[in-house]
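ok trying this again, last paste got cut off
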Amino acid sequence: MNLSIKLTPAEEEVISMLANGYAKKEIAYELHKSVRTVEHLTRSAYGKIGVQKVNEATMWWFMKVFKITEDEVRKAAKLLLVVLIVNMGYELKAQPAKTIRQQRRQVVYSAGRRRNDFN
């Protein structure tokens, strides 16, 4: 991963949104571009920064934006995972009657869209 690479503004925006958890269809919708354009920008950015997967691009983005090392990103990701697991455990204890699938479906449908709209 090369942190000194300059991306175009469009590529930077796409990588930023991918790093923040957006799906490509959501990015296309938000940026008023086609999904194919977003895919092209993603491939172009991946080639420039030397990554092949979205998780690698996310790590690159965090390293570049927050000016931290790869080890620091990995430590932060582990800590975040622990926090999420603990938080999820508390939520599951609070509502034992619902399965995880039912909870996910309720959240997705309450957002006003079907589950597969952005997958």
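PB: full thing came through this time. The two ends are 27 Å apart (CA to CA).
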